Amino acid sequence: MEQRLATLIGNAVRASRQRLELTQADVAERVGIATEVYGRLERGHMLPSVRTLRKLCLVLSCSSDVLLGLSATATVAEDGAPQLAEDPPEYRERPEVRRLMRTVRKLDSPRLRLLGQVAHALER
């Protein structure tokens, strides 16, 4: 039962991620887990905690019923439109920009200053 549920959640999470055109790293960052952990979850090798499941629902704009296999569709509003959470502006960036930002966040202060100078020089 547990393995079947893990596989079900993994498939639903993957489908939702792909629908939003996000990478595994994008989702992992937004949920606050390691990319490797997210990959195991998506492959059905582990179950998410309740807290992680909730964050996945928010990040992937789908209900827990969809991720748990209780419903095949997302929640819809009275007018029939899908009821999805609005993404913050930084989540609407192109994948290349998101990858670059993940790398930049890991830089120490001197390297960050140097990168700023290079970016400023490229603007000219």
TrEMBL record:
CDD domains, alphabetized:
HTH_XRE
| Alphabetically ordered keywords of this record | DNA-binding
Which Gene Ontology terms cover its molecular function? Answer: DNA binding; DNA-binding transcription factor activity
Indicate the segments forming the HTH cro/C1-type domain, all copies: 13-67
InterPro entries assigned to the protein according to its UniProt record, in alphabetical order: Cro/C1-type_HTH, Lambda_DNA-bd_dom_sf, TransReg_Diox_bact_type
Tell me which GO cellular component terms the UniProt record holds. Answer: cytosol
The source's domain of life comes to Bacteria
Question: Could you tell me which Gene3D superfamilies the record lists for this protein?
Answer: lambda repressor-like DNA-binding domains
**Full protein name:** XRE family transcriptional regulator
Originating organism = Corallococcus terminator
